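Pasting as-is:
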Amino acid sequence: MDPDDFRERLGAALAIGFVSFVGPFAVATLVALGPLGWSVKASLIAGTALSTTSLAVVYAVLVETRLNATSTGKLLMSACFVTDMCTALALSAIFITPNLWFPIFPSPTVRPSCRPSSSAWPDRATTQAIASSRSACAWSPSRC
């Protein structure tokens, strides 16, 4: 995933990722609750399991079709990341039991001072060079 592209198209990535999680989650959860007669927790787990996206599969398809270096491919990767984050948040919400330690555990994660500096991420040119070299390797291993 290209961090610069993710920041530039954050709204689109969030919208696609959120909708691609919520749609299947709602349908699967309601089907499990209604016609199948499952418990609420089992229905929520089923909804979460059936709404997640395999980032590895999406990336493999994008590489095979040479879309991984395109604007559309980068947006799809960003949206898959958002979908995976929604899955992690849903699973946390289903299984967490808040207690005294709960507010302390996530605090290092959300503190701004804990975020990596922008120099920790490769710039756009480096990211594109890596993506194109991977794409060349996928299509012609003898050039790698």
